[in-house]
UniProtKB/TrEMBL annotation:
It catalyses: a monocarboxylic acid amide + H2O = a monocarboxylate + NH4(+). Belongs to the amidase family. The active site is at K134 (charge relay system), S209 (charge relay system), S233 (acyl-ester intermediate). Its EC number is 3.5.1.4. InterPro entries: Amidase_CS, Amidase_dom, AS_sf. Keywords: Hydrolase. This is amidase. Residues 78-525 form the Amidase domain. GO terms for molecular function: amidase activity. It holds the Pfam family Amidase. It comes from Penicillium cf. viridicatum.
Amino acid sequence: MDREHSWEEIAIQKRKRRDSLIPEAWQLKSTYPPGSSVLDVPRTCGILTHTELSITSDYDTVDLVQRMKEGLLSCEAVTVAFCKRAAIAQQLTNCLTEIFFDLAIERAKHLDAERKTNPSKSLGPLFGLPISLKDSFNLPGIDTTIGLTYFANKPVTETSTLAEILLELGAILYCKTNVPQTVMTVDSDNHIFGRTVNPANTKFTAGGSSGGEGALIAMRGSVLGVGTDIGGSIRMPAMCCGIYGLKPCAHLLSYRRKRSPVHPGFLGHAPSVGPMATSARACRYFLEVVMKAEPWRRDGNCYRLPWQPGTEDISLRRLRVGVVASVGKFSVTPPMRRALQESSEKLSRAGHTVIPIELPDVAGLERSFKGSFALDGNEYLKELLAATGEPPVPSVKAFGILDGQPMPLKDILDINASRAYYLQLYNDLWETHNLDLIMLPPAPHTAIPHDAWQFIVYTGIWNFVDCPAMVLPVGAVDERDVLDDRSQFGELDEAYYSLYTGPEEYRGVPISVQLVAQRYNDQGLAMMAEHVDRILNGGECSSS
């Protein structure tokens, strides 16, 4: 325990250091009341030049890399533009934890100079691209707090394997993003850095646990970031903030040398590492270039699943899509019902086969899924909090993360046996219906007020049965999403359903759908999602 400083003092000092790293010239002069949309502030605040606005607004990952490779943009110009916009996003949404803009700009200058010195040198597939990282990734000389004061002011000495791969592919790393205390809730709020808010409506959650990434990318302070997902932690922030988020199967991309909120050797279902981005093709591109880097050669926990070149043109196929309207327990609110209905109709009009399906035994799966989160009663987390006397934040209390006790061995074996059962049950679902994709809501609701989220099964199902899943934005709440009283599962559901108060308060909040593919068909999902995105959103759609 740090006996010289209280957890409050540690948090205040750490936050002050972060805030001091934003140059005065990049600091906003105006403030915005709670409930505002701040998405347009980067364009109107006067901090970004016309060129910097274009760099950060007009291109996705693939476009930016191509323009830098062609010499139309310098790495330095692109990096400075995204550092400035990330600084603006931080002041509006509180999305950043670690800021190292100086190191990023220095690397960008080095890449530009190296290119001039050796113009024939092959350029990596992420050449010059600024990429943001969730706080839990390790970079030497930088803290990895995961929202806990215990880890503050303790710079790590190692580099996460995934970060090593990105750097070798030419990327530039410039910031890390906020997470919940414990990295285990849907509200990115902790005592060190505070709460990340939703840029579409700052009264609402940005999601979690990769909520800092969600807000930063929605503000286009990044066009490509990396999150993690053990129950929806990539997809829920993607849904809340109106961006794209892909959860691959566990062990596809490297999780090595990351800070985790669970004890080493944890036996529950495994988390995934995946991209969050402003376009579907950026998610596909990230998956492709990282898989081609053969992560299994560096990480013994990664499966050897190479990217398959020369795969068929998905646009020539007629897909068979199973649509899940609800999984029960909590009723789907009007905006999310409309998102699913309109998306189904567009796919059908495009010639794809859309069939309604029901997911089997969701209630039983949910019980096992929740048990898998807390096999050891989260004793490790309790120890980390107790070491500084830090109390849990409201969302940690509400989720009951710290309420359990270590399970007897028999109960652990029972949960592992149930997981084998559900893996087979859901594999049979794919085969029985001969499905290419399943489409369903990412949650029964849009982004909602802070600390109100209760239900993560729409996303968590796919972690427990290890299917790749991706969230695509398809619009925003508008006047069509009239308030109704269609809750149908009892008093708790009625109270949860009533969080949606109608389009007046929720106008402009993003709506999304979730696409799922069969286990280990990560490449297929990325390619099908890119095609589906064109149908649902038109063209090479980028969220903005």
